[in-house]
Design a protein that fits this description.
Blueprint: E1 4-12, H1 16-31, E2 36-44, H2 51-61, E3 65-70, H3 76-86, E4 91-94, H4 106-114, E5 119-127, H5 132-148, E6 157-164, H6 165-172, H7 181-188, E7 192-199, H8 211-225, H9 228-256, H10 264-297, E8 304-309, E9 312-315, H11 333-341
Parallel strand pairs: 1-2, 1-4, 2-3, 5-7
Antiparallel strand pairs: 3-8, 4-6, 5-6, 8-9
Helix pairs in contact: 1-2, 9-10
Bound molecules: uridine-5'-diphosphate (UDP) and magnesium ion.
């Protein structure tokens, strides 16, 4: 008898080449879990390659599969969030569709959950098939993040993780739009443990995270959890003031000993340097103000085109909160209300 349910949340964006193999391996891995029923929630993040049609076929063939289709591409982090919003399980596992995260590792995550952890994240031991630039920038980013962010965000951890129902319900109350999901989950606290795994290379297709999206993602990570960059302006200001004072002294001394300097180069350099510092500071302010702007518009975080389940497709009503199948929101009334005041992320990651 299986009395507990595990939900697998899979964000999908143009993954036609991998989705069949993923579904086969994920289903096999979930069936192998003792004492757990399962459901798979695919979130189609505006795919244009026919991924959705394949996913609906899975949903028609298997009542354990649900497909949440976005009206357009809202980005990976938002797709994960929508999947968690629609999950009914006692525990929820988020996993990429490209088989970089092996579904077989889920069994280890479940083991730690059963041992009492509210969050079990999968730590990348080795990473295959990722270029040196990606590895280098990732390492630098996490070093910077750990220095300026008070919440401890473990390094080498992606979005492949298990959350208990309790952790997921708390996570669902966080409706900020420029989302850095791994940071938000760390922020929740509770008992969190890591399980090391070998990250494979992508099974087929190419990454859906070009560098532009990655830079945006990194900025979201920093600005969501730290205001240190804002303070940078103050520090630079002090530094510039100190430099100006020292230079003033040197000008005095030169005057006293009778050296006359033409000074054109010095003035140019000082002017350009100050201009650069001011622009950098304006840019930093802009990053935060832009995020305040997205937040204040209070658009929904995502728009659902349809939900396919048990062979039928429900369309979502305009203006309504994402239309979940009956009974979905009843267990989490707090979120239903926060959903209505939530949030849209502009398609900033596009
Ligand atoms: N993805 C998504 N929306 C996006 C970009 C990616 O749902 O806008 C999905 C993608 O289909 C995959 C997962 O997010 O399941 C991770 O993306 P990808 O493997 O391309 O990223 P990488 O592993 O290269 O960082
Ligand atoms: Mg990948």
């Amino acid at each position: 008898m299986t009395d507990k349910l595990i939900s697998l949340v899979v964000p999908v964006f143009n993954e036609l080449e991998v989705i069949g193999e993923f579904h086969r391996r994920a289903t096999a891995a979930l069936r192998g879990l003792q004492g757990l029923g399962y459901e798979i929630i695919y979130v189609d993040d505006g795919s244009k390659d026919g991924s959705f049609e394949t996913l609906s076929r899975f949903a028609t063939a298997d009542s354990a599969v649900r497909v949440v289709k976005f009206s357009r591409n809202f980005g990976h982090q938002v797709a994960i969030t929508a999947g968690i919003d629609h999950a009914r399980g006692d525990c929820i596992v988020v996993i990429d569709a490209d088989l970089q995260d092996p579904p077989e590792v889920i069994a280890q995550l479940v083991e730690e959950w059963r041992a009492g952890s509210e969050v079990v994240y999968a730590v990348r031991g080795e990473r295959e098939g990722e270029g040196p630039l990606k590895l280098l920038t990732a390492a630098a980013f996490y070093r910077l993040l750990s220095r300026i962010v008070k919440v401890e965000i473990p390094a080498n951890v992606g979005d492949f993780r298990l959350m208990s129902r309790r952790a997921a319900d708390h996570f669902r109350a966080l409706r900020e739009k420029d989302r850095f999901v791994r940071g938000l989950v760390s922020w929740l606290g509770f008992r969190q443990t890591g399980v090391e795994y070998h990250r494979d290379k992508r099974f087929a297709g190419v990454t859906k995270y070009p560098y532009s999206k990655m830079v945006r993602f990194a900025l979201d990570g920093i600005t969501s959890f730290s205001t240190v960059p804002l303070r940078l302006a103050t520090w630079l200001g002090y530094l510039a003031a100190l430099g100006a004072f020292l230079y003033l002294m040197s000008v005095f001394i030169q005057k006293l000993v009778g050296i006359t300097v033409e000074g054109w180069a010095t003035i140019m350099v000082a002017m350009l340097a100050m201009g650069a510092v001011q622009l950098i500071c304006l840019g930093i302010l802009g990053e935060y103000i832009g995020r305040i702007f997205t937040e204040i518009k209070a658009r929904p975080m995502y728009i659902i085109d349809s939900v396919t389940e048990d062979g039928s497709t429900y369309s979502s009503a305009p203006g309504a909160a994402p239309a979940p199948p009956a009974g979905l929101t009843s267990s989490t009334p707090t979120v239903a209300s926060s959903e209505s005041r939530a949030s849209s992320q502009q398609s900033v990651r596009d």
